[in-house]
Amino acid sequence: MGEDCIFCKIANKEIPSKYVYEDDKVIAFNDINPQAPIHIIVIPKKHMASVLETDKDTIRKNI
Questions:
Q1: Which domain CATH number covers 49?
Q2: What domain range is 40 assigned to?
Q3: Residue 1 lies in a domain
């Protein structure tokens, strides 16, 4: 985990956010500077420097 990674701090709940969903892999929260009436950000709980590091288990669809 990057010490200065804001997303890791949000996922670890070190920075308060309005969480709308959470499971063992991801957390979703409202953007503090929304660009639309509903603007939700979904991030993995595991630190990743790039989307290219995402494994299939993290991005699988839950239907």
A1: 3.30.428.10
A2: 6-57
A3: no
Instruction: Say how far apart CA 49 and CA 32 lie, in whole Å.
Output: 22
CA 26 vs CA 13, 37, 38, 50, 53: distances in Å: 13, 22, 19, 15, 15
pLDDT recorded at residue 63: 38
Global pTM value? 0.75
- pLDDT means over runs of 10, the chain (63 residues): 81 93 92 93 88 74 47
Q: In this structure, is residue 63 part of a structural domain?
A: no
Contact yes or no for 52/44 (Cβ under 8 A): no
